[in-house]
Amino acid sequence: MEVKPESRFRFRSIKEYPRIAEYIARFDTEVTRVNSIAILIGLLTGLVIGVYDRALEYSNTLFGMQQGFSLHEFPHYYVIFMPALGGLVVGIISHFFIKKNYGVGGLIETVTLRGAKIRLKDAFLEVFTSIITISSGGALGKEAPGVVAGAGTGALVGRILKSPERQLQTLLGCGAAGGIAAAFSTPLAGVVFVVEVIYGELETRTFIPIVISSVFATLVSNTLFGVKILQISSFQLVSPYKELGLCLVLGLLAGIVSTILIRTLYYIQDLFSKISLHPVFKPALGGLAVGVMGLFYPQVLGMGYEVITDALNSNLAFNLLLILFFLKILAFSLTLGSGGSGGVIAPSLFTGAMLGGAFGTVVNLFFPETISEPGAYAMIGMGAVFAGTARAPLTAILILFEMTRDYSLILPLMFSCVLSNVMSNALYRESIFTEGLRRKGFKIRKGREVDIMGSMFVKDAMVKHVQTVSEDKNVGTLISLMQASRHAGFPVLDSKGKLSGIVTLSDLRSKVKYGEVDKKIGDIATRNVEVAYPDETLEAILKRLGSKQIGRIPVVDREDRTKLLGLITRSDVVNSYNKKVIEKVRDTE
Question: Membrane-crossing residues (predicted)?
Answer without folding.
Answer: 34-52, 77-98, 171-195, 207-225, 246-268, 280-297, 318-338, 344-367, 379-401
